[in-house]
Amino acid sequence: MRARRERCAKGVDLAVELGPVTLVNPVIAAAGTFGHGDEVARLCDPTGLGAITVKSLAAYPWPGNPAPRVCPAVGGGMLNSVGLAGPGVERWVAEDLPRLRERGASVIVSVWGRTVEEFAAAAERLGGLAGEVIALEVNVSCPNLEDRSRMFAHDPEMTAAAVGAVRRALTPAGSERCGLPLFAKLSPNTSELVEVAGAALAAGADGLTLVNTVLGLVVDAERRRPALGSGGGGLSGPPVKPVALRAVWEVARAYPATPIIGTGGVTTGLDAVEMLLAGASAVGVGTATFAEPRAALRIVTELARWCARHGVEHVSELVGAMECP
């Protein structure tokens, strides 16, 4: 499998710079789709990917939302309301991270919280992992108990508070910067996305993950109730790609020096090309993994073939190369 990928990529340099981190290629497994440990890595060789982002972790174990948690949506999409279920940071560090490292994965760890203090608590438990993970993602696209009317990522001030708390929790005493690059994962469900992105960067984020799911609802007409156990959920997959592309394009134009992981509806190598052209430095692959565990590896191969056919010697040439009207 690996030899075939190398032949497909012959003559094409797939390496990209994601802020201070160099990836062997721009394809990253998105958080929430590759599991916490090596569940999917047993089927999809993580050394063939730029990185994998583990499912978001809290400072404590969390059971998530009531079942059913996942249902299909029109257009090949998926609605989910898993509710950020997870084992907690400490157990993940002890049990899951070692298994990922044994498989040669480049790991991005994602954290979440319901309050600013919970974000800080999760980050504190990850101190000292600079040599074992390559970056930390701050998933601010989650409910805010201090302001139940909206997510952290719907408010520039609350986004800045959460990102700043994580930055401070990871920064050693006497140092200006922590040892891990920080990426803020933002929501598309706000008209203030560019402002929220600016707030995250000002608070200490080194880059951004754009975007999380789009809020949606699927109705079970026979039962006359929502199809998901908790009501609504997050729409992902092909239907959200135009939304994700728009978000990446707008934020990249506003903050052109910012590394962005473009995520949302990427199922083919061409999708990845489009995301890079819109301004992403790397591309997250998520929902496609549920139907095809090795989808991210296939997308790497397709991306390399597209570059070879179009005379692109370095995939980094595509980043932000779309002509703007």
Describe the structure.
- The chain is an alpha/beta fold.
- It has one domain (2-64, 84-215, 236-318): Aldolase class I (TIM Barrel).
- 30% of the residues lie in helices and 18% in strands.
- The protein is built from nine helices and 16 strands.
- It has helices at residues 2-8, 89-102, 116-124, 156-170, 193-202, 241-254, 269-278, 288-291, 295-309, and strands at 16-18, 21-23, 27-29, 51-53, 70-73, 77-80, 107-111, 135-139, 182-186, 207-210, 214-216, 219-220, 225-226, 233-236, 260-263, 282-285.
- The strands form four sheets. The protein has an eight-stranded parallel barrel with strand order 3-4-7-8-9-10-15-16, surrounded by seven helices. A four-stranded antiparallel sheet has the order 5-6-14-11, with no helix packed on it.
- Strand 9 (182-186), helix 5 and strand 10 (207-210) form a beta-alpha-beta unit.
- Helix 3 (116-124) packs parallel to helix 4 and helix 7 (269-278) packs across helix 9 (295-309).
- The longest helix is centred in the middle third of the chain and has 15 residues, at 156-170.
- It is globular, with a radius of gyration of 19 Å.
- It starts with a helix and ends in a 16-residue tail after the last helix.
- 52% of the residues are buried.
